[in-house]
Amino acid sequence: MTNHSRQAELRATLERAGLHDRRVLDAVEATRRDLFVPAELEDRAYDDSALPIGLGQTISQPYMVALMTQELALDGGELVLEIGTGSGYQAAILSKLCREVVTVERLPELAEKAQRALSKIGCANIEFCVGDGTLGWPARAPFDGIIVTAAAPKIPAPLLNQLKPGGRLVIPIGEDAIQTLVVVTRQEPQPTIRNVCGCRFVKLIGEAGWPPE
Ligand code: SAH
Q: What are the chain's domains?
């Protein structure tokens, strides 16, 4: 099967699973996921599952990538912060749906690999940063939306503070096995918090996340 038809099939799988944002589905269909997985897992690149990418980390399940992106409700003009670059696949999807992506990864080796994969497909509107993303990225704040692709014990305060009024933070919250995907909207006097679904992510490690093991 060609990559093109595997991409179309993945889109159909996500549509059957209930995802409805056409722009997000178009972005998934237009993005080669095989470029973001290790060569030995290439034949599983279009499965709707998370896969290991080395250093104990994973590329997220396409359904979860699409769902989290849908929850950001992007219309094309936004500046979006991603915490947890990992393979770079989520950043590739975001880059097609907003004005600019700033993506932060704590492991330099993964950040470099992701940058190489993304330069192959020519995503020019992504800034790569290495550091502790639990502190956000103050130099580029405020953001229209923030997406965190690793699970935190609680909502990291610096991230909420770097959101524009009305902006959304999409983040998995919880322990190893029980996590909830939540959408936090910055509003006065109080942010609103909505639970979306159960999920399972690797740990967000940093000052406003989990301590290193
Ligand atoms: N979005 C990724 C999924 C990556 S898995 C993709 O599409 O492939 C989560 C990533 O978060 C891992 O690479 C991990 O190293 C990174 N991470 C964990 N804690 C972090 C922190 N405090 N700041 C930045 N990245 C972090």
A: 3-199 (3.40.50.150)
End-to-end CA distance of the chain: 42
Minimum CA distance residue for ligand 1 atom 4: 86
List 140's β-bridge partners, or say none.
none
Q: Tell me the pLDDT band of 177, cut-offs 50, 70 and 90.
A: confident
Q: What is the pLDDT of residues 137-161, one digit of tens each?
A: 999 999 999 999 999 999 999 999 9
Residue 62 beta carbon below 6 angstroms from any ligand 1 atom: no
**What is the mean pLDDT of the segment spanning 46-68?**
97
- Pocket probe mutation, ligand 1, options 93, 105, 171, 213, max atoms within 8 Å of Cβ: 105
The answer, yes or no, to whether any atom of ligand 1 lies below 6 A from the CB of 167, is no
| Cβ atoms of residues 169 and 194 within 8 Å | no
| Residue partners of 159: CB distance under 8 A and separation at least 6 | 81, 83, 134, 136, 146, 148, 169, 171, 208
Mean pLDDT computed over 107-132: 96
pTM more than 0.85: yes
Q: Six-digit token pair at 213? A: 């093991």
HSE on the CB side for 18, CA within 13 Å? 2
**Interatomic CA distance for residues 211 and 154, integer angstroms:** 13
- Ligand 1 neighbourhood includes 205 CB (under 6 angstroms): yes
Residue 167's φ and ψ, nearest 5 degrees, are: -75, 155
